[in-house]
Amino acid sequence: MSDDSNAAGAVEHREVVVIGGGQAGLSMSWHLTARGIDHVVLERDTLAHEWRDSRWDNFTLVTPNWQCVLPGYPYSGTDPDGFMSRAEVYDWVRAYADMFGPPVREHVEVVSVTQSHGGGFDLETTAGPLRADQVVVAVGGYHVPTIPRFAEKLPHGIEQLHSAEYRNADALPDGGVLVVGTGQSGAQIAEDLHLEGRAVHLATGDAPRVARFYRGRDCVAWLQDMGHYDIPIQQQPGGLGKRENTNHYVTGRGGGRDIDLRRFATEGMSLYGRMVDIVDGTAVFEPTLTRSLDAADAVAESIKDSIDVHIARLGIDAPVEARYRPVWRPEREITELDLRAADIATVIWSVGFRTDYRWLRVGVFDGAGHPCHHRGVTDIAGLYFLGLPWLHTWGSGRFAAIARDAEHLGERIAAGAREKAAA
């Protein structure tokens, strides 16, 4: 803390302010602490609260525990090949904070960030103003739940909620459930409801899928060995457009397994194409179900192809495994569903989130409201982002690479501090 923060009425000044107290903000704090850089972490709720408040009861990670690595804090539990539950992840991240004691201020929300005329940044918070030489935005990329406009046309009496609000089947009213969207959350929530014996209707999207295991190992382990989590986004097909891609659906539940929507259909789940409207109490779907299922399977099989090539190239002794064969195909595309006639009592929207950086009043955004950066470094001196999906690699938005991304920013921040001191 600088001397002027102690003067009566003076604005508190810190070398670095980190905004966000999840795993990204804590990782940043670890590197700043290790470098002896003055900083504070501001968290509008409590540390790691997203793991406690925004996941359903039976949530598990979809990546194995051995891939969970924070700076100076690799997973050291008894089940490295398992998948931590929501509560276990929360406890793990909280224990990380307890390990090194970051300078966190909980229940402090940042209202605005603007550039100071003399350099650095001015922050307005619910606890008063702050001034910082450098700022790290570590609030993730999923801010506001997305719900389609036609949701307002749902018949009266049908409950609706976003996937971020879903907790368990028992919390929902009796009756059928329509889940809209098949990204990771939508597919897993549909499975959760299905396992609880609920009548599930699932409107599919264009999310790809991946097999949990192939040729004797978790597919994540193969991909890790093949370097897929280390390839910079600029070298990926489509380049920066990868940031808009939907993650592959799979689950870590029950020790890890595939999510096969076709198998769910053989067990009674009703599948549809993309939901596009509600007209007079009837849900309207595009005839895209066959295409969606085939495309998801094609991605899963292409990943297996790359694993086969890797095994053959290195001469790895791995068991041979038969390829997947579809267990169900739709006989026809159903494009309408009378919600009341189908006894639909709840609709769960699992169609993603949008960003909300209205409080960050600095010109670093593109026309779609996404921050412009390279490995988290923006063109505004001293402003950084951490914890975003595809910040640098596929691993950036998960535990796999957060430590590496934080270390890179730590070096840049330390260099910025040295430049300021020299000046």
From TrEMBL:
Pfam families recorded: Pyr_redox_3
Keyword RNA-binding: no
Record-annotated membrane-spanning stretches: none
Keyword hit for Cell membrane: no
Cited Gene3D superfamilies: FAD/NAD(P)-binding domain (3.50.50.60)
Alphabetized UniProt keyword annotations: Oxidoreductase
Official protein name in the record: MSMEG_0569 family flavin-dependent oxidoreductase
Species the sequence originates in: Nocardia aurea
